[in-house]
Amino acid sequence: MASGGLQLLGFVLAFLGWIGIIISTAMPQWKMASYAGDNIVTAQALYEGLWMSCAMQSTGQIQCKVYDSLLKLEGSLQATRALMVAAILLGLVGVFVAVTGMKCMKCMEDDQVKKMRMAVFGGVIFIISGMAALVATSWYGNRVARAFYDPFTPVNTRFEFGSALFIGWAAASLAILGGAFLCCSCPRRETSYPPTRGYPKNAPSTGKDYV
Prior knowledge:
The chain has a domain at 4-27 and 75-184: Up-down Bundle (Butyryl-CoA Dehydrogenase, subunit A, domain 3). The protein has 4 helices and 5 strands; from the N terminus they run αββββααβα. The protein has helices spanning 2-26, 75-101, 112-149, 163-184; strands at residues 31-33, 43-48, 52-57, 62-66, 159-161. The longest helix is centred in the middle third of the chain and has 38 residues, at 112-149.
């Protein structure tokens, strides 16, 4: 029962992490302008994400513009996109594999060994998915920090960490932690020895031979 509860906890954490990775990928707040500049009067905040850039006006309206061409984007941004999309796809595969190996599911009940391996395999996939998202968000955040502290970067073009980065970091951590719980939820196989065969005791000799 304890291993089943740990398995369920791991799946819930990994699933929440996968949902967080999807939300982080779709959000445009990967970085936000720390200073809008004197030329933009009506804008309160500027955001940039993986797919679009947005400006929130003083009236509360948000205007977003999708990036025009994929070929015009920086190679680092394209790599971040690829890692996040890969993390989402791996997480989707991990969901199906882990559900198949859950003890509360009736699938593959006739073979508990394969069912256990499916749960562990799903946990490994979740860990890889979380690592991909963690690398993508950390790489993007490192680029933002380096550009912010670069003295040659103009003041009106400096950006800070956006909320999508923090969500991505938390989601990646949940996916890795949940995957680790899934890998550790299966009980260790105990070595069983065959029962010792008892040998019949020899009857005491009476000294008489029967023909």
